[in-house]
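hey can u check if this looks right to u? its 180 residues, i copy pasted from the old doc so theres a chance i mangled smth
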Amino acid sequence: MRRPNQDSKKKQSNQEAGPIASRPHIPPGYGIPKDKRGLLPWSHVTERMANATHYWICTVSPDGRPHATPVDGLWLEGRLYFGGSPETRRARNLAANPAACVHLESGTDVVILHGDASELRAPDRSLTIRLAEASAKKYGYGLKPEDWEVAGVRVFRPRVVFAWKQFPKDATRWRLQNDD
């Protein structure tokens, strides 16, 4: 029988290591290996997301038309935070349907995330301080914490992530479970 402290330590260790990697389901003709050798570590995704300057946000309009837009953003604790006017096509699409796909600019060092994006209304002060500091550091400019509180910020929570650098050898998929 495990003690509660041991379960807590194990859970913390698993969270630090990230989600479990597996192979994506891709038709056999693409040559995806069947074994787990060569899978990318979760740190590859977190580093690429944290260091990216732009992120492509892909949404769907209420009548089913796809829409893609590049945005500035901040990757913090496994989530992508980004802004924009509520009048943008992206924001209107997300208000009607939170499902979104996010990907980075490279077609060779690929990171693709599927999940949901929602507007944070009245984010807490500690988050707005972190967003302001991270934006200033990353882009050299940014909103003040109080501006983040009223400007509207969206948070994207990934559910499934795909990545590869040497397709098909290292094609990797992760499934995430978010707490909220």
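Confidence is low (pLDDT under 50) at residues 1-15.
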